[in-house]
Amino acid sequence: MNVLFVTHAYPRWRGDIAGAFVERLAIALRARRHALEVIAPADRGQGGHELQRGVSVSKVRYAPKSHETLAYTGSMVERGRGLLGTLTVASLIGSQTREISRRRRNAAVELVHAHWWVPGGLCAWLARLGPNCPYVVTLHGTDVALLKHSSMARWLAKRVLRGAAGVTAVSSYLAREVERQVGFDSAQIVVQPMPIDVARFERTSQGGGGVVTAGRLTNQKNIGLVVEAVDRLGRAGREVPFTIIGDGPERSNLECMVQELGIAERTRFLGAVAPEDVPAAFGDADVLVFPARNEGFGLVAAEALMLGIPVVATQGGGGVTDIVPTAGGGRLVAAYDSGALALAIQELLDDPRSGELAAKAGLELKRRLAPDAVAAAFESIYRDALATH
Predict the structure, then answer these.
(1) Upper half-sphere CA count for residue 287 (Cβ side, 13 Å)
(2) In terms of Cα–Cα distance, which of 215, 230, 194, 348 is closest to 294?
(3) What is the pTM of this model?
């Protein structure tokens, strides 16, 4: 099969985390003997064609290099505001659309796989690929969040999704949210997460490391709720080590919070951690707490379970509810309730089998989310798309 990926996030160098899961899927499909090329945006003038880990990547120029800053940083929505931002987004979409059309004319592309409905899916739709070259769209999360705030986005998304030969989402939460926002039937959306580098998660936590939480330190990640829960545990006589992994605008507030609550001496702030260092950063944690709201997937929770670390998450966590067990090696508790969070942590700390059961859930995740397994799932999705169009 000859597949063309269209994305606004793809690793720019070895070890770059931008779109690393898209690269993992591309490499796994190549290993299964599919021809695969990638169209991605240039980054500050760094465009052109190159071979990255056996995958042909074309980075499309779309603006003067000082304005080629829309992609790779997770800030496209913010940078796309205002007249200049809108024009730059339009230029990116136009450039990638023309590149899709050019590839379709000059190469035997059978199918386009657009990651995120915008800008990639919109480009595929605008390219008017036709029945001989269908496109598949994968919803990752930030693109779905955009639908809540823009009637124009909802209008466009409905047309992009209806024009697709197949639609996938990385979680059932995203599938339901798309149905709620634009009326696209969630039963037509295949829930298929992106691959994880499961080989990095060979060790198993031995326990004793206390509570850990991880994520970008923003309001949406809700880390303050974990701080409150750890404080509650201490006041109930259960003082445990506490590790916060990540960085962001809320860090100074959280540092003040642990000082004011008197738990600073047993709290560590590790800052941002590279993906390959996650297992070491989690160490021998007893419990990982994942309190984020409306997550597209919840990668941190999956990584913890693969290390045999029990996980507490909230029922408002979005895609993470597909991952975390409701008993045994995990708990799902009411959102915004630090008392319920503390109680769930206590239950897992007191259950001698919670780590074993978490590791069992993690083994199933490794099986499902290994790159080759995910690539096989997308092979089936592509075949269905080609067969029906």
Answers:
(1) 31
(2) 215
(3) 0.93
- Alpha-carbon distance of 197 to 92, in angstroms, equals 30
- Per-residue pLDDT reduced to its tens digit, 279-316: 999 999 999 999 998 899 999 999 999 999 999 999 98
CB 5 within 8 A of CB 36: yes
Under a CB-based contact definition with an 8 Å cutoff, are residues 278 and 288 in contact?
no
What is the C-alpha to C-alpha distance for residues 3 and 189, in angstroms, rounded to an integer? Answer: 20
Q: Based on the number of CB atoms within 10 Å of its own CB, is 197 exposed (0-12), middle (13-18) or buried (19 or more)? A: middle
Phi/psi at 201 (5° precision): -115, 55
**β-bridge mates for residue 243, sequence order:** 212, 268
Q: Could you say which residues of the chain have pLDDT below 50?
A: none
Placement of tokens 């390959």 in the chain: 276
SS (H, E, C) the chain: CEEEEECCCCCCCCCCCCCHHHHHHHHHHHHCCCEEEEEEECECCECEEEEECCEEEEEECCCCHHHCCCCCCCCHHHHCCHHHHHHHHHHHHHHHHHHHHHHHHHCCCCEEEEEHHHHHHHHHHHCCCCCCCCEEEEECCHHHHHHHCCHHHHHHHHHHHHHCCEEEECCHHHHHHHHHHHCCCHHHEEECCCCCCHHHCCCCCCCCCCEEEECCCCHHHCHHHHHHHHHHHHHCCCCCCEEEEECCCCHHHHHHHHHHHCCHHHEEEEECCCHHHHHHHHCCCCEEEECCCCECCCHHHHHHHHCCCCEEEECCCEHHHHCCCCCCCEEEECCCCHHHHHHHHHHHHHCCCHHHHHHHHHHHHHHHHCHHHHHHHHHHHHHHHHHHC
Tokens 């209008």 — which residue? 155
| Identity of residue 73 | T
